[in-house]
Q: What sequence folds into this?
């Protein structure tokens, strides 16, 4: 690494760290203002609140990271530009690419960070914080509830596992007890003719057995051709070794796509692809949006460099306002593309990539015009 690269990185990364810490501090204050009352009503103590806020803050990172990169680059490169350091480097025979190559290297690394945030950390943060709120609510309800099955209930759960030929229905499912109540499972032939049905008062996924176990129910067999009952037998407990459906996947359809992890989105997309459901577009938009968002740091760098080091030296706010204006256009275009993708006007892949591609072309045009 050359002296110029070390100098650029030292100036930029030092200020970047300050902006990151300041931003996280503001996000923490925002979370405390927004969620403190809800946590107090659920009976959370100081330790619970500390754990919740530590988990909650990372959920904002994928949104604010491009803004942090933009602000830090505009400030540092603008300061070097106003101090004539960029001019001196150019006079020494260095191109803009040579001056900013260390920034581009960090940008590539930041793309990996964006992928990690969007695919894992942010969905984990959202899901974990919601789970913590649920658990606090469950704990508060449990003090007065006599039946654990009435705590943390999701009512009317249905799941059509078309790939395995099974249709599930539950009157309610308790996340607290991890049990379903009033459970019905129907098995079908490849021609969608019912051949077996299980009724049960309760059912749960046994983690040791790796399958569903039903309690106090009845198993009924049907003739697939005419629907006539060919056999029926009650049971106290019945483990069905090939029933391995994940209850969290069944309940994921009530969760907003932006709150689901990358791999959970893929599971749901596989499910809707089999059913050829129009809902596939909504989840596909979020899935491909995560992939497209991976390149946000490079787009930010492409925009920040021209506006920071080629504008007037006396008024750095001009470059800042132009770049922020482009980001406003980006977010507006993102909403339009998301709507068009969800309605099927554009394919989810095209709709997810369109805002970034537009900003990439604009930033590339400004970068190419640098002299």
A:
């Amino acid at each position: 690494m050359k002296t110029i690269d070390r100098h650029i990185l030292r100036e930029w990364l030092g200020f970047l760290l300050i902006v990151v810490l300041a931003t996280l501090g503001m996000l923490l204050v925002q979370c405390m203002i927004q969620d403190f009352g809800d946590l107090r009503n659920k009976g959370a103590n100081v330790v619970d609140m500390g754990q919740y806020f530590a988990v909650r803050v990372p959920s904002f990172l994928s949104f604010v990271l491009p803004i942090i990169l933009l602000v830090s680059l505009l400030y540092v490169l603008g300061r070097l530009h106003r101090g004539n350091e960029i001019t001196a480097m150019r006079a020494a025979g260095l191109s803009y690419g040579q001056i900013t190559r260390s920034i581009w290297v960090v940008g590539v690394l930041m793309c990996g960070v964006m992928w990690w945030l969007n695919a894992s950390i942010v969905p984990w943060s959202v899901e974990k914080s919601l789970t913590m709120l649920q658990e606090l609510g469950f704990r508060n309800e449990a003090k007065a509830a006599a039946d654990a099955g009435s705590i943390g209930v999701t009512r009317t759960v249905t799941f059509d596992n078309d790939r395995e030929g099974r249709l599930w229905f539950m009157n309610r499912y308790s996340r607290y007890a991890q049990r379903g109540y009033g459970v019905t499972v129907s098995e079908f032939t490849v021609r969608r003719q019912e051949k077996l049905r299980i009724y049960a008062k309760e059912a749960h996924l046994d983690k040791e057995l790796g399958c569903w176990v039903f309690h106090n129910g009845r198993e009924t067999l049907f003739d697939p051709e005419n629907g006539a009952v060919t056999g029926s037998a009650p049971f106290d407990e019945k483990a069905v070794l090939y029933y391995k459906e994940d209850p969290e996947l069944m309940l994921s359809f009530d969760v907003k796509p932006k709150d689901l992890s990358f791999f959970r989105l893929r599971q749901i997309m596989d499910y809707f692809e089999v059913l050829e459901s129009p809902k596939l577009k909504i989840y596909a938009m979020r899935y491909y949006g995560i992939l497209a968002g991976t390149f946000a740091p490079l787009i930010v760098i492409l925009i920040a460099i021209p506006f920071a080091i080629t504008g007037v030296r006396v008024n750095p706010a001009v470059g800042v306002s132009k770049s922020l204006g482009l980001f406003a256009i980006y977010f507006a275009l993102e909403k339009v593309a998301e709507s068009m993708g969800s309605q099927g006007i554009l394919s989810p892949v095209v709709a997810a990539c369109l805002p970034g591609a537009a900003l990439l072309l604009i930033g590339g045009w400004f970068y190419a015009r640098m002299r």
